[in-house]
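Support request, please re-run this one:
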Amino acid sequence: MKLRDLSVVAMITLVSQLSILTSTYAKSLSEAGFKEYVIELKAEALAKGYQQQLIDESFHAVKFHQRAVKADRKQPEKVETLDTYLPKRVPSWKVKKARALYKQHHEILNEIGHKYGVQPRFIVALWGLETNFGKFTGGYNVISALSTLAYEGRREVFFKKQLWAALTILAQGHIKADNMKGSWAGAMGQNQFMPTSFLAYAVDGDGDGKKDIWQNQVDIFSSMANYLQKEGWNESLTWGRQVSLPQNFDTQLAIPKNTGSRKNWLAAWDNTEKTLAQ
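Re-run finished. Output below.
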């Protein structure tokens, strides 16, 4: 249907809805607007049952991070192949460092690996990939980062959920608000757990009453192993096997590029998947 065919009422409604849509995506972000939004967040937190003292302590140094907004809006969308991805993420120096740290923490890694049914080498590998063995964990105050991205609005529901989870972590006494550091998106500690993932997977590995994925090596390794176990890790299988294609390989079995969506990609996978024996 063309616009000239619409009634006047329908046209007015359409223009109104477009105006709302435009204003939503062109949201003007400001320090003043953020401060007002934080007042709303604190009121909502109180209504959810969080204690006033916890709320005051958690938000006392909260600030707007424009850099977090820019980072969220400019996430790379380039598709990587395994051949381009691996050299960037697994350079030779990182492999050497992983082997050295594996030997250094061998005893505790074996204990944790046996307890959770996860081979220790995979715990170390995950540690290296997530934060370069704890070197790059992010310097953002998590409450500030999550409040900023909730205020930005595009994924408000998601980041509010993470914010409430972060308050729960603080309420449980695992860390102080000033020490709760993470990435611009709120991923925390040497595991880079989002707050909801922390609540689901973090472990008090040494029994001191706290789940410390920032500094406590036993908690860090235990939490990684617990995460893998709960996600269905099977220690009887290895991660993958490198193979070379035979010269007569049927390229029709390969999943085509630009399948359109993850759903379509998985459907194509189901149609062409072969067992290792095949």
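Residues 91-137+189-235 form one domain. The chain has 13 helices and two strands.
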